[in-house]
């Protein structure tokens, strides 16, 4: 199984970035997909998730209205569109695949497969 995350970079506050994660070696459509992030010196935290069954995506409160997660089962890709970026969004962003029950969707332990991370740096 390989999850390849890309799209990170150095941007200014207020800019946008689009992260992508392409998977191989697993049946993409059978997994829930999520993005987590980890800032220096902090624990990895939930950003957003989208269920294998479809329906509304899930977001951390700090990302609501700014970030949009989407999935393309045919391309085996999950994306995270990030708008109005803030310096506090600076982190390594990880994509993850799993089959969590709804109540555990925001937990890192609920995800079996992880990408290598892509660094997002937002300058003020």
SSE topology:
Blueprint lengths: L1 E5 L2 E4 L4 E8 L7 E7 L6 E6 L7 E2 L7 E6 L4 E6 L8 E8 L12 E4 L3 E6 L1
Parallel strand pairs: 2-11
Antiparallel strand pairs: 1-3, 3-8, 4-5, 4-9, 5-6, 7-8, 9-10, 9-11
Q: Can you offer a commentary on this structure?
A:
It contains no helices and 11 strands. The chain is globular. The strands form 2 sheets. Strands 2, 4, 5, 6, 9, 10 and 11 form a 7-stranded mixed beta sheet that branches. Strands 1-3-8-7 form a 4-stranded antiparallel beta sheet, with no helix packed on it. It is mostly beta strands.
Output the keywords.
124 residues; mainly beta; four-stranded antiparallel beta sheet; 11 strands; 50% strand
Gyration radius over CA: 13 Å
Number of helices: 0
Q: Strand fraction band? A: over 45%
Number-wise, the strands total 11
Assembly classification? single chain
Question: What is the averaged pLDDT score?
Answer: 95
Helix content bin: under 10%
Q: Brief description of this entry?
A:
The chain has 124 residues and is mainly beta. 0% of the residues lie in helices and 50% in strands.
């Amino acid at each position: 199984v390989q999850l390849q995350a890309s799209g990170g970079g150095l941007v200014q506050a207020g800019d946008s970035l689009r992260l992508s994660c392409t998977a191989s070696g697993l049946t993409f459509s059978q997994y829930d997909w999520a993005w987590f992030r980890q800032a220096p010196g902090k624990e990895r935290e939930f950003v957003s998730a989208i269920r294998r069954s479809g329906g509304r995506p899930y977001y951390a409160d700090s990302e609501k209205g700014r970030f949009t997660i989407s999935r393309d089962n045919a391309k085996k890709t999950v994306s995270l569109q990030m708008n109005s970026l803030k310096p506090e969004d600076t982190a390594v962003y990880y994509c993850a695949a799993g089959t969590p029950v709804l109540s555990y969707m925001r937990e890192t332990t609920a995800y079996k497969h992880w990408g290598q991370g892509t660094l997002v740096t937002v300058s003020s």
